[in-house]
Amino acid sequence: MLSRTLGRTPYYVVAGGLAVIFLFPLLWNAWASLAPQPGTAQESGYGLGNYRTLLAHDAGLWRYLLNSTVVSVLTVALTLGVSLLGGYAFARFEFPGKNLLFLVTLAVLMVPYATLLIPLYVLLGRLHLQNSLIGLSLVLALFQLPFATFMMRISFEAVPRALEESALVDGCGTAGALRRVLLPAVRPGLITVGLFAFLAAWNDFIAPLILISDSERAPLPLAVANLRQQSMGAVDYGATEAGVVVLAVPCLLLFLLLQRHYVRGFMSGALKG
Amino acid sequence: MQTAGPVTAGPRARPQHRRRRPSWASASRRRLSRKVKGLAYAAPTAVFVTVFFLLPLLLVGQMSLSDWPLLAGDRGVNAPDNYTRVTDGTLFWPAVRFTLLYTVIATVVLLGLALLLALLVQESRPGAGFFRTVYFLPGALGLASASLLFWGLYSPTTGPLSPLPERLGLADGPVSFLATPTSALLSTVFLVVWKFAGFYMLILLVGLQRIPHEVYEAARMDGAGRGQIFRSITLPLLRPSLALCLLLCVTGSLLAFDQFFVLTKGGPDNSTVTLVQLIYREAFQRMNLGTAAALSVIVLAALLVLNALQFRGLRRADES
Description:
A: MetI-like fold, B: MetI-like fold, MetI-like (chain A), MetI-like_sf (chain A)
């Protein structure tokens, strides 16, 4: 039935109509952040008034952008580092407990985020990492680990063994072979893992909501949500819309630039985990 | 295209036969040293998973059995008080019901639309690649950002949608999309569908592209119509991908938090409180980590049972 209606309706009417629905909220939000609106810093004429509100809000937009950048960079670096070494170990070495460790790493996917955040809140307190961007990054990196480890394992397995063996014969140790020969070969996998980790860390909301109590250290999504809550009664829609633009632009740009690498994450079968 | 097997099917590292070994002793020494090196490379993963995954899992179990106020910390075992207090709570059963209702509605709408989108962008027409990118674009945003965006979009004062029903003659005056329990639920579903449809479209697209062309051609030669091909070839061969989408979508919906926390704040009248929101409320508004942990364990157990059931379905779909 579905394809019969599809067959009759012109393709471009259906596909184009849906495209308008998908684009409209994004375009409307970008326009509304600049447009005049009562009750905002941009009362008349088009301009950047809402962005100025955002710059001055609480600890200031630059502070929140810095927090978000620190968390994202740390999460990406941790995820890449751990999954690069782990993927190498799982793909190329035999050691006791190998299969068990791999299964336990994938099992992270089976446990709800919220279930782990309550004990992690207590645990990070004991490690003196409560209310810290480092602690938050460690938690965010953990949740990236199942996908990242699987992705890096299959990336290493796709590299011909002969390539690495010739490096080993030439006198490189396993670390040298990894750095000189394997690293360039698994670069596409690293880019995919890094992109997923960045998008997750930049956008995460519930982990900082629970783990960060000091508003000075809030990443941007939390700060924008707080801005809205603080101005209850007189709600500042304009500043929120500006905040959404600042949050969305890096993600949209990265996605458009690295779309090919993003789609590989879906092709790899890693999502079957 | 790459076809990846199941997770654990990777080829094992073989001992290196091609190289000449001077003696047994040095060969076994090399094997031992490779074992040690393998362990060393896996060590960061092992430490990470132990400290931030296994330890918290044990801790949440212990916390759920203890009197554990947010500020005072551990005050000793009180089992099974936390569990009975949670299930006796006035919001627990409404939250269970609402979470299940939301999961069913969101999953049905999301997967239906995702399938339509995948079929649309799979066609080899000019512009199909553009449509694929456009449908996916909202997926690049975070769920919290998307929720903040729709909070403005649905605004009864400045949002562009609230005057629409009046202009179409469906309502008197501007409509408030988050004012009644039903409209708040449906508005949230619309947001979630907008944000995630492209994601599931990509998974289904990968599945569609794995179906060999010859199968379609053979069916067409036998005189099958479009609808018939869709029903008896596309749908059955797409079952593994659909099952994967179902698994991800059900899990994601049961754990819904951001969208309701930002958009509806659980309102109106606590009608849109999900289970994960209840965990948050227990822990940080009622300041009781013990009951929050008990609730976490209940959600974990429910999810494990559900995942086990769905994995069995997934495997059966893979075999057929």
